[in-house]
């Protein structure tokens, strides 16, 4: 009878420790998964920030090109107006 009781307690203790090990392994795995999720999220935030900065830089470049084109047009118009004035003064 005592042997049976010892066996029952031994099996119960073994099952308890196996449960503890499984729980620990699950927690370790879940922690690693969560750390990976956080790392991936950080990578995504950094990618989005790089894209935002690239869009800002492209907008600056586009604006500068538009201003340069407007300056060229204004210079051409001034030259044309000046030529017309000179032509009308001569004729």
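^ structure tokens above, recovered residues below v
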């Amino acid at each position: 009878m005592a042997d049976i009781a010892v066996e029952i307690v031994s099996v119960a203790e073994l099952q308890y420790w196996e449960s503890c090990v499984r729980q620990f392994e699950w927690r370790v795995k879940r922690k690693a998964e969560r750390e990976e999720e956080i790392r991936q999220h950080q990578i995504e935030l950094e990618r989005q920030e790089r894209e935002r900065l690239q869009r800002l830089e492209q907008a600056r470049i586009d604006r500068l090109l538009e201003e340069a084109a407007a300056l060229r047009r204004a210079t051409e118009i001034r030259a044309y107006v000046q030529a017309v004035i000179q032509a009308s003064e001569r004729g």
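The first helix runs from residue 2 to 90.
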